[in-house]
Amino acid sequence: MSILNLYNNIFPSTEEFLLKASEIIKNGGLVAFPTETVYGLGANGFNPIAVAKIFSVKNRPSFNPLILHIDSVSSLELLTTIHSEKVLKLVDKFWPGPITLVLPKTVLVPEIVTAGNSTVAIRIPNNEIATKLIKLSGVPIAAPSANSFGMLSPTTAVHVANQLQNKIDFILDGGKCSVGLESTIVEFTNDNFFLLRDGGISSEEIEEFLCEKLKRKVLENNPNSPGQLKSHYAPIKAIFFIDEVDISNFNKEKTAIICFSDDKKYSEFTFRKILSTKADFTEAAANLFFFLHELESENVDFILAEKIPEIGLGKAIMDRLTKAVNHYR
Ligand code: TXA
Ligand code: MG
User: Fold this and answer.
1) Is the model's pTM score more than 0.90?
2) What is the distance between the alpha carbons of residues 308 and 311, in angstroms, rounded to a whole number?
3) pLDDT over 50 (residue 1)
4) Of 33, 38, 100, best ligand 1 pocket probe by most atoms within 8 Å of the beta carbon
């Protein structure tokens, strides 16, 4: 039996099922779909009742605003009141891609999408299945990551099915997400760019393009941006940083190690995951959530993670690991 048969809510991303998915979106239902970052749980972004279903399926606090996914820069004018050359230059460079812009919203954007904020988060994903679905649906698709609130983000259709189980009828399968970490979030206010979340495009790359430093908005425990909560993205298994524990206290058969690149270290442990043997941050980012999901179904009690150099995508990887560790600190 193929693995797909085990999940009656996973569908291949053929034209037929894309069309079906877009009908569900148009009719106010939910569809989980792949993006290059993580899988999203999508609803018609102009339909407040459809969007409300996302919050209930995810057990997500309703004060947590969502990202609107669009398929063309021309949709921006429907969603934001701002007309800025600076913003257009930035999105021309990085869209489609893993960067989300937070901009002043228009009246067309329902309050439930922005959780009452006067700003709205928007991005064009770099994934053909996602952009085809948006085009066929004819509306912006509001979508958070397709996980239960606070848990690991899904990077395959099976991750979505396992987490949300029978709470969702339709998951479009697009294989493993190529980036594997959520988008970088940048807010534009008063002619300044602020970094709200590290993600799939490094802050260095954005700063180099803008020829300016991104200001960091540190809003710890600000309910308006739970991606910024101290504890988030938590695997079910307790996770710690290796250098913060006494490793001799851990059973070598029942503890998993996550290393950055060195495949010789910690070889006495049965379960070891090397994020990238080439020490490549892009590959490491793509593997992080994927490996954590794998370890959730292995017979291990604890996960010990090595700290990653905080350069380029290393910052986003450390952000996710630190939030997972904080859950158990
Ligand atoms: O890569 C991604 O960004 C994925 C895919 C599906 O696009 N989506 C994702 O969504 O990670 P979510 O909901 O898990 O994270 C979105 C983050 C949240 O932390 C939310 O608080 C923040 O974006 N956000 C959304 N609208 C905002 C706004 N108006 N102001 C500040 N933060 C906002
Ligand atoms: Mg999320």
Assistant:
1) yes
2) 9
3) no
4) 100
